[in-house]
Design a protein that fits this description.
alpha/beta; 187 residues; 6-stranded mixed sheet
């Protein structure tokens, strides 16, 4: 079956995307979680195919972060899990360590590109420790905690995410090309 431009059409299934805000203060109700909402808003702008957010708000506790990532990948069957927060140099910033502990393989290019992109805006981007990795058929990506930085980093790395999920035999993510253009090699 061919689409309007001769590209193969792929049956669309609803993608489940985990969104994890890691913050002691937001999880304690000290302030509203703006970062998780920034991810949801960005993905709503990017994606034209159906998707369902699976949201979690948790404190900076490595065992809890690991448990949450495992649950979203293994039980909730999220093809993509995006975290925000806990990527800096503070003692309680342990999201990258939790991600590395639960992943089968790491994808260092994501963190490298996000830091390079953030350096265009702030010199402290070198303090960020974002990373990404694969757990089974799930891509886990760590983002910074500030909403503005979330969008900047996702703008940089998201073009590769739909193809990565294709390679892991996940749901076909269609994008709003006027907002973000995913890269998929021509067949």
């Amino acid at each position: 079956m061919k689409g309007a431009e001769g590209e193969p059409t792929v049956p669309t299934q609803t993608a489940r995307i985990g969104i994890v805000t890691v913050s002691d203060r937001a999880s304690a109700g000290v302030y509203e979680d703006l970062s998780g909402q920034a991810i949801i808003d960005t993905l709503n702008a990017y994606l034209s195919s159906p998707w369902e957010p699976v949201y979690r708000l948790i404190p900076d506790e490595q065992p809890l972060i690991e448990q949450t990532l495992i649950e979203l990948a293994d039980q909730e069957q999220c093809s993509l899990v995006v975290t925000t927060g806990g990527t800096g140099p503070a003692r309680r910033d342990v999201t990258p360590e939790a991600t590395e502990a639960v992943c089968d393989r790491m994808m260092p290019g994501f963190g490298e590109l996000m830091r390079a992109e953030s350096l265009k805006f702030v010199p402290t981007a070198i303090l960020s420790r974002q990373t990404a990795g694969l757990r089974g058929n799930t891509l886990i990506v760590n983002l910074p905690g500030k909403p503005k930085s979330i969008r900047e980093c996702l703008d940089a790395v998201f073009p590769a995410i739909p193809y990565c999920i294709d390679l892991m035999e996940g749901p076909y993510l269609e994008c709003n090309d006027a907002v973000i253009k995913p890269f998929r090699p021509k067949k």
